[in-house]
Request: fold
Amino acid sequence: MGTNQRLRSKQKVNTSSKSGQIRIIAGQWRGRKLPVKDLEGLRPTTDRVKETVFNWLAMDVRDTNCLDCFSGSGSLGLEALSRYAASALLLERDKSAAKQLQTNFDTVKASNGKVVCTDTLAFLAQPAQQEFDLVFVDPPFRKGLLEPCCESLENNGWLSENALIYVEREKELTQPNLPSNWTLIKDKTAGQVIYQVYQRQPQ
Reply:
């Protein structure tokens, strides 16, 4: 086998070994790697983006009640719990992904994490069961889910008075129509992804 062929083979091995897992960046489970389901459309937030986001939120995660609206791999909710959030509720429609999320909670003994296997928009259309201080809105791209999700969060009582809302969206999506009392406080682009943090102002 030639050198270039060996290199290509090694690169393929390395690439596949990185798929199917997430890494906790900081906090009580720092460095832990947890498996995720390899599902079509699953797009875990990259480590680089996640690190930036949690640097933005560094002083605002501890003791918060978190909601991860389209949890997928659970990367954001688990990172928040690792950094001592009080609780995290993860919403995930796919049954196998939701089961893996619960397994990962059990693995790290996150008794303050809860997974609900549900359609997020249907769940948020209900009157809120509790208020959340930190909310992650990272829906599948090009599905038209961002605006109705944010509208339900605001209108149905899911947000605490000064809640922080993280939004991750595709770059080609023009500025979405979000609640008028949400103020943009952080904003960055990475490749084809725009990620932002908003703060809710009481109405």
The chain has one domain: 17-200. Confidence is low (pLDDT under 50) at residues 1-19. Residues 3-18 form the longest helix (16 residues). Strands lie at 21-23, 33-35, 65-68, 87-92, 113-117, 132-137, 159-170, 182-190, 193-200.
